[in-house]
Amino acid sequence: MEFETTVEINATPEQVWNTLIAVERWPEWTASITAVEPLDSDQLKLGTKVRIKQPRMPALVWEITKFEPGVSFDWVASSPGVKTVAAHRITAVDNARVLVTHAIHQSGAFAPIAALLTAGTTRRYVQMEANGLKRRSEAAESTHA
């Protein structure tokens, strides 16, 4: 299963990045995440692990496998027969506007079954996260303007 969504956000790249990497605060701005627990570091970087709980899904441990400060990060979670990669990318349009892309890719022996069972929820959650990031970043930007 693969799903990708892009949203335009009227905020500085720095504001969006700071909102995005404060993963422990995601439950404040998206209903797709109920809890985020850093497991080994309070700061995102290559190798950081966090446990994320989402409604109607088991809690998973995600590990940062790619990290480019201010630009992108990928994290990976594994469950029996399924590897999920979630990518988060920021592309500056100008100094006050960015495009943010969220992408999910699942692979493994049971990925087709997981896709049948969770594709609709996964798509909805990825869109909720993109929209929530937009609202939160634009609200934060307006308080700093």
Topology diagram in text:
Elements: E1 2-9, H1 13-21, H2 26-29, E2 35-38, E3 49-53, E4 60-68, E5 72-79, E6 82-94, E7 97-107, H3 111-144
Antiparallel strand pairs: 1-7, 2-3, 3-4, 4-5, 5-6, 6-7
Helix pairs in contact: 1-3
What are the salient characteristics of this protein?
145 residues, alpha+beta, Alpha-D-Glucose-1,6-Bisphosphate, Chain A, domain 4, 7-stranded antiparallel beta sheet, 7 strands
Describe this structure in words.
By secondary structure, the chain is of the alpha+beta class. 32% of the residues lie in helices and 40% in strands. The protein is built from three helices and seven strands, in the order βααββββββα. Strands 1-7-6-5-4-3-2 form a seven-stranded antiparallel β-sheet, with helices on one face. A hairpin with a 6-residue loop joins strand 3 and strand 4 (60-68).
What count of structural domains? 1
CATH level-1 class: Alpha Beta
CATH topology: Alpha-D-Glucose-1,6-Bisphosphate, Chain A, domain 4
Per CATH, the architecture is 2-Layer Sandwich
Q: What overall form do the CA principal axes indicate?
A: globular
End-to-end separation in angstroms reads 40 Å
Mean pLDDT across residues: 94
Strand arrangement within the widest β-sheet reads 1-7-6-5-4-3-2
pLDDT < 50 runs, ≥5 residues? none
The description of the largest β-sheet is:
7 strands, antiparallel
Q: How do the SSEs run, as a string of H and E?
A: EHHEEEEEEH
Could you name the CATH homologous superfamily? Answer: START domain
Helix content: 25-40%
**How many strands in all?**
7
Question: Count of DSSP helices?
Answer: 3
Strand content of the residues, in percent?
35-45%
Overall SS class: alpha+beta
Overall radius of gyration: 15 Å
